[in-house]
Amino acid sequence: MEVGKRIRDERKGAGMSQDDLAARVYVSRQTISSWENDKTYPDVQSLILLSEIFGVTVDSLIKGDVETMTETIDTEVRTMKRLSYVMLGFLVLMLLAVVWICVQTFAWDWPIEQTVPTFVLALVLWGIAMFAACWIDRIKKRNDLITYHEILSFWNGEDIVRDTKKRRRERLIPRWLKIVRTVGKTLIAAAIGAFLGYGGAMLADMLLG
């Protein structure tokens, strides 16, 4: 692959730092570094911006690398889709396990120690879902995907529009606040699961007498 070397050479020839180039292409400095080290590859929109900044053609930047770039990006998209299905599937199974715990506890009056195997199962299912979520997050970081629209465009193989107000606002949010937001969403999801489980247990108790 030569596209990373070409980007690095053009950037240095223009007297720009990675931060300077990142600001003009609307990506992070880490993304520029990934491009230059051939860890990830720029999308079509980014290639157009790079060609305009460097005053060269897109063809000269990706000469001979189109097939490899396309294959790599397609692989990333397929992996992200599969992981998303895995995450969703195991989250659904985890919620069902939580419902089952509530049925055992409230409808059947099982002692806590008898519900431990189901509780462990729920934790395992949650752990697998979180592993898939972390892998998805790595793919998002590698491809500098921040907003939902960018993720959706990447998912559908469409051009990613990065210069948006929402993206700029998202970049201004400190990392600690993003972590708090993620934890908050997880707690809300857990609360909803517990509520559904309790409701299911009450319904089962009514039906079973």
The largest pleated sheet is described as: none
Oligomer: single chain
Rg over CA atoms, rounded to whole Å, is 23 Å
For the residues shown, what is the average pLDDT? 83
Give the distance, in angstroms, between the N- and C-terminal Cα atoms: 68 Å
Shape: elongated
Which parts are unreliable, with pLDDT below 50 for 5 consecutive residues or more?
none
Which sequence of SSEs, written as H and E, runs from N to C? HHHHHHHHHH
Helix content: over 70%
Number of helices: 10
Task: Walk me through this protein's architecture.
- Helix 2 crosses helix 3 (29-36) and helix 6 (66-107) packs across helix 10 (175-208).
- Helix content is 78%, strand content 0%.
- It has helices at residues 3-13, 18-25, 29-36, 44-54, 58-62, 66-107, 116-142, 148-155, 165-172, 175-208.
- The mean pLDDT is 83.
- The protein starts with a helix and ends with a helix.
- With 209 residues, the protein is mainly α.
- The radius of gyration is 23 Å and the shape is elongated.
Outline of the structure:
It is built from ten helices and no strands. It is mostly helical and about 210 residues long.
Overview features:
single chain, 209 residues, mainly alpha, 10 helices, 78% helix
Topology summary:
Elements: H1 3-13, H2 18-25, H3 29-36, H4 44-54, H5 58-62, H6 66-107, H7 116-142, H8 148-155, H9 165-172, H10 175-208
Helix pairs in contact: 2-3, 6-7, 6-10
